[in-house]
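Sample 1 of the test manifest.
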Amino acid sequence: MDLTLKIWRQKDSNTKGQMVDYKVTEISEHMSFLEMMDVMNEQLITKGEEPVAFDHDCREGICGMCSMYINGEAHGPDRGVTTCQLHMRMFKHGDTITIEPWRAAAFPVIKDLVVNRSAFDRIQHAGGYISVNTSGNTQDANSIPIQKQAADQAMDAATCIGCGACVATCKNSSAMLFVGAKVSQYALLPQGQVEAADRVKNMVAQMDLEGFGNCTNTGACEVECPKGISLDNIARMNRELMKASI
Amino acid sequence: MGGFFNSSIGRKVAMALSAFFLMFFLLQHLSINLLSVFSPELFNEVSHFMGTNPVVQFALQPVLIFAVVFHFVMGFILEVRNKKANGVAYVKNNGAANSSWFSRNMIWSGVTILAFILLHFIDFWFPEINTKFIQGDWSGTIEGVDGYRYYEELVHKFANPLRVGAYVLAFVFLGLHLAHGFTSAFQSVGGTAGRKKTLQFIGKAYSIVIPAGFVFVAVYHLFNH
Amino acid sequence: MALDSKIPKGPIQDKWTDYKNHINLVNPANKRHIDIIVVGTGLAGGSAAATLAELGYNVKAFAYQDSPRRAHSIAAQGGINAAKNYQGDGDSTYRLFYDTVKGGDYRSREANVYRLAEVSVNIIDQCVAQGVPFARDYGGLLDNRSFGGVLVSRTFYAKGQTGQQLLLGAYSAMNRQIARGKIEMFNRHEMLDVVKVDGKARGIIARNLVTGEIERHSAHAVVIASGGYGNVYFLSTNAMGSNVTAGWKVHKKGAYFANPCYTQIHPTCIPRSGDYQSKLTLMSESLRNDGRIWVPAKLEDAKAIREGKKKPTDLSEEERDYYLERRYPAFGNLVPRDVASRAAKERCDEGFGVNATGEAVYLDFAASFVRYGEEQAKIQNLVNPTKEKIKELGQAIVKAKYGNLFQMYEKIVDENPYETPMMIYPAVHYTMGGVWVDYNLMTTIPGCYCIGEANFSDHGANRLGASALMQGLADGYFVLPYTIGDYLADDIRTGKISTDTPEFAEAEAEVKKTIEFFVNNKGTHSVDYYHKKLGLIMWEKCGMSRNAQGLKEAIEDISALRKDFWVNVNVPGTDKEYNEQLAKAGRVADFLELGELFAKDALIREESAGGHFREEHQTPEGEAKRLKEFQFVSAWEYKGEPKDAVLHKEALEYENIEVKERSYK
């Protein structure tokens, strides 16, 4: 199939960007979206033009690196997938596809479609851990039984890949789903209880400091999340913060 | 605690708490309005009680005013902060793919409701304040009307089709605001998954029944007098 | 230089404990004067950085991704082995040790593997304490699954995302140390050389991938944890950015590179669909528990299927060749990875492949649907259930077990695997070879360590399932932090290492020279053009089966390709900006050297062992033939061109295990 791509090009964080049109031809419906981008970039290099920069690494939907806003949706029109798992069979011959980077004040553009998501790391530094000495001198792994349901829910929260689609898709650029997932994982486990109050307070404070917006509970993040992280995690974080503050 | 209400989540909790109060207020306001359809006498009695009871006038009314003002001011503050968090806007954004229109546009349904409240103040509340606090007339009566004046005033206001049209429009927006706001408020204060289905049902019912009730009262009086 | 593996004396079960009791330690007050660089933040690098910082060292950690959490350890699905014996099924440290050595086809170092098995139990304790949400049973205790043909259930797992959860655990431990100021994190940085001062590793040259700036970083020791080099094949299950550069640069500065030819080709991957393909996707090995592998028995049927004239479901049982069950009646579809992969290749080479590229075989669940369906019908007391009903019941059971994998397959291939058999083909997955290290995990450069998949490690010639995660974390959490102290104890009075020295200047100049060449060489071919060509040579001549003729050709071909690369490569953009093509050019340049050494290593290893299969060395039935005289580690010393590399042999002694033939018939 042949396609028209409208892609955000921006030289670096200090330069203003703009949308640029490209034509790509002979795209197979079996290609992944990023393979389509590869084909386009090869064509650009051959023509002596600069290829479009985009983040990607594992290309199997788990590293959380890829991050494209395609036709107005984070990771494109398919559900439960990252950009790298989106396939061209979702599009048809002659389509025009708009491709933009994640947009949020807290995610400045580095180049073209590549954004800086360090804000997520800094939120994790503020409390995304259990303070256990990494020496292995802990108690036996089975000494504290954990209710299966709690362990499963913690796993569901922990499955977040930190891609930032929640922020990108949120009308307020809120990071609540991301932070809620991490807070929930530890809040659900007995190992996380000791530091629970400080953790949620510090992580929320850092989240606010980074300039993410407020949650309006539209639920868009849950829909666009490639890993199906539930809004319940946000509710749980709200409870945890109230519990910690009152 | 002070720190809590300065946090993004704290602000949303405050928003939710004021919303709970306002939703309770709506419920009682509607109940009284509905009395006007079934029993003008009872409506007058209750209206007079609400209008003259010191607890209602000097304790609950200021709280209500505070809640209304707070809800709006905080709503605008959050909107400004959220806009700031957005940075550069998308060239193409397909919000409809993942969320409802009313959840994304609480600010606009809110602004519409605000406009209505201003109208409502001019219609009912300012004259009330004028009569009671400036003129000092706490009798609840006017010349030419037997008994209390409240029913007559109500019927009089709803005689104008244009006013009723605006009134209906405002309540459609209130319905949209509540359709998202009701469950959203519970989510903000940490409502749990177990109760979610029930909550969603109640929320949906509330957001339809309350505005429909107000609209019914208005339309009833428009066509019956 | 003679190789000294520094294996401690004494009985194997006491070696590690005794050793720890007698090595030098650095006192806590002195640790804060010592800097350590860790390159790579996967399971090995992340856990090492966190623990070294915990101990009090100043750590500088480097990752080419935008966050440590994205390292490719995250993609590991199945699980992590540990000799906990929670199931009470007779597991022990010795059994895990034994299985790992045997699984590695007797090409790994006994003492290292025993230590690995010993510390495996600590990993689970550690990870649970960190909040890793392992699967649990209804009693709240940890659950295990069985894996890769061993006789016990020792694999701990977190759904199909065990690697992700373990990495996030190590990442969280890093975050804690970053918050304490003990780890300085350099995201989007790539190490481009190691700096030696007086023969010791004292720092690195790194490039900031965002600004393009070349930076000098000094330390008292350098730890390489940069993962495997499977991307030398271009197509692999590795991440797009996975590369050999850090390992190769230390090799060029004096670290020996061991067993480069040991590669694991995983049998159950989604086949290639066309030339544009950028990477391959693994499907968990567990599918072989219930799926039957087959190709058409007749060539004309295979051809008809390839041309779309027939469908797999059109073929009757007699028209199908369940070749694994035919060749290996005892193990059937559950033969080890290397055997299953070679058998698939053999059938496809003979023309029985079933997709357009001719490189795919079927993995069919139809028999399982019936088997499970009939079982369910019995349980539910259904009298004379219809075929459809049985299939429906069976599919529900398969869905519960592998639903997410079936869904992933459908997303990628756009075929419903409940209705038509899956197509699979082997793909490069893991490299057992790597930088040679001694018992301390130190390379042949003093002060330069190598951990995780990047070292030649504990897996011999073939890695067992669920062992990679175990090794990465064992190295990082529990081995390196001890052994590095022994070396650093001599450095407590050294003081800060200056970067303002001729050694740093020289290394930096060298790096800059290469980068300038790339951006100024207005060649005709893109970096990917060369990478794909290299991959094709590797796959065809150094792939699942190898022969002397092909390997000799590969050496010539790669050498010629490398020459062409250094004349005609085209790297767009400048060196002062985010430039992925430039970063990639450097990585491919190193792959072009490694590839040749790989072929050379495969050529001298005139035996078949694990993932290395030499066609000349097989039994009459076509099975791998291991030879006693090759019971050594081949460690290569860099001497300029790969063809000049000098071989050093580390003999492998087996005192605690009897070396046996592997048979799966």
